[in-house]
Prior knowledge:
heterodimer; A: mainly alpha; 3-stranded antiparallel beta sheet; two-stranded antiparallel sheet; B: alpha+beta; 9-stranded mixed beta sheet; 5-stranded mixed beta sheet; 15 helices; 19 strands; 17% strand
Amino acid sequence: xxxxxxxxxxxxxxxxxxxxxxxxxxxxxxxxxxxxxxxxxxxxxxxxxxxxxxxxxxxxxxxxxxxxxxxxxxxxxxxxxxxxxxxxxxxxxxxxxxxxxxxxxxxxxxxxxxxxxxxxxxxxxxxxxxxxxxxxxxxxxxxxxxxxxxxxxxxxxxxxxxxxxxxxxxxxxxxxxxxxxxxxxxxxxxxxxxxxxxxxxxxxxxxxxxxx
Amino acid sequence: xxxxxxxxxxxxxxxxxxxxxxxxxxxxxxxxxxxxxxxxxxxxxxxxxxxxxxxxxxxxxxxxxxxxxxxxxxxxxxxxxxxxxxxxxxxxxxxxxxxxxxxxxxxxxxxxxxxxxxxxxxxxxxxxxxxxxxxxxxxxxxxxxxxxxxxxxxxxxxxxxxxxxxxxxxxxxxxxxxxxxxxxxxxxxxxxxxxxxxxxxxxxxxxxxxxxxxxxxxxxxxxxxxxxxxxxxxxxxxxxxxxxxxxxxxxxxxxxxxxxxxxxxxxxxxxxxxxxxxxxxxxxxxxxxxxxxxxxxxxxxxxxxxxxxxxxxxxxxxxxxxxxxxxxxxxxxxxxxxxxxxxxxxxxxxxxxxxxxxxxxxxxxxxxxxxxxxxxxxxxxxxxxxxxxxxxxxxxxxxxxxxxxxxxxxxxxxxxxxxxxxxxxxxxxxxxxxxxxxxxxxxxxxxxxxxxxxxxxxxxxxxxxxxxxxxxxxxxxxxxxxxxxxxxxxxxxxxxxxxxxxxxxxxxxxxxxxxxxxxxxxxxxxxxxxxxxxxxxxxxxxxxxxxxxxxxxxxxxxxxxxxxxxxxxxxxxxxxxxxxxxxxxxxxxxxxxxxx
Lengths: 212, 596
């Protein structure tokens, strides 16, 4: 049976995952370039120079795309993979080895979603939401929910937003009906609606956005 | 076997001593008695057919000083008049609640039909009504033995208006224009109630003091508001019109709505709760109208008389309670600003009449207690609102003082922040600062020595580097503002209100872009310190100063991050310590007068 081919983008994530698995929680851009060239030399060599790695967009762009999907975080050219990214990379790893990609488990939450839900359960804003004290919920609760601050850059903000959406989707797909999970999903919807304007402002900000 | 007895009914026989007993209960003073005369005059106008317009229902109070063998006298004059039949059927009768209405279906002020007569009987040596109507003159009154009756030869004495006016002595008085003419042409009659040698008055009548008391008296002040009461001193004009006290209302509380009295109110006694009826088919539901004065009424001034709740019956005041007389009042300090009226017609239900003879207080009983308890609750509710307002005002005052110190701290911070960041972070500037804001774009950095990207060209997509009236990041230091006080630079001139849940130092995304920080003055600790110690206390200044330290530390860490420093815990800890040390040393030199 022919192994399904991963996209170049997916290979970059896998390379970052391998570095992370090897104990590197924060990885320099140059290390990812080298790792992905070692793992997939045919895909990531400099054009016309198969013995040299490509340091350009072939690696750079996927990393920033994954950042917007909440799977990679970046700061000062240092990258790390998020729990959501780890879950994705493990699926890709299985595919690469010729095993079928693990499907979302019914009646069990995926690990990355579980981590997010556990974090949400401890939030003061969520507790107020459960107590019906919606008037006391403030904009800071949105930032706490996403695990960001007002200074978080646009792309990281978008990434966290996507990660939380994925976690809520995972809850829905799991079919689990525990009250705390239902409440967490409702809290997500509530925050998205109540602070829609703030979210738009934050995700639409271009001016003063820093690039790494 | 019980004896079958059938009683033959007889009229009651009373000794006049009973009148002394009841009369003494009135505990009369002149300010309490005069309103009784005034109410009788108003009732006389109310009974008139055709009706007399309100502004023509003149009531004249004439206080005559004693002089040349003449005793001092009080007079109350109206321009209606009575017949001997009126006197026989109504005036002569004691304790008849129907007396004031004379059988008409009109609402009148007269209650039990006693007040005016008892005032005459108890508080003057002699007193009488001199009244003229339909061409006949009658004088009826009390002699020095407190016995009443018609004056000899002056019952239904045919008289011309001119003779009656002369006999009454009202032709020499300063009366409203046209009143004498109306008597002369037979259009109107008149009544003079005259009290001779009033108690506690030697010769000169203290007219000013009496008027002052009268306009504050609960039984008179409603009438004073609506009827033209003229005051004369020995026949000469003293006050063209007795005016009620005008109370300036507290801003924000000008239009408190009427509060309907529930149809039932609970009354608890010895653990048993009874529901008391406050409206039925016969008596409509009542209401409470509370008002809040701009200034407290206090306890000792005359105006403190108005710090009360007047209980209104179908017409007029049937009782009045000083605010501090309300049972179980909690918001006592705020209640000193309050006054109002409670209209409750069921209190006059003849089957359960709660109205006392003197109309000072209601008859004590479950109904009265239930109502007063409910009124107290409502007064407390408004009192809590006032308390909130007071707290806001206090906070604003404290924030005004805090703003002065905030300006000092901002100036202090700006003087040393560049140097501090350079020293602590080991670089000459603050990194990739951003230039002045245009409408949309972003200008270039203003620090050419920036270690990383400062000093580059403008990045604005449209109008980078333009002028704007908002704070500018980069060329200015962070601006620290006080929530709930300083105007929001990105708002419409209003301040930014933060909740107790917002962090002590707060920023919105737009604040981050423009280097604005807010000190949250609504934080519980901030509020507690200000409330307890005030804005000029060392404790509040210390708290305020510490928030500046927080901001400087945050700025330092962000600058490190912008410079690309890898922020390990050890590094962060060391840098925080360095920044705090430097800030404290600098504060000791520059801010000692404020902090120590």
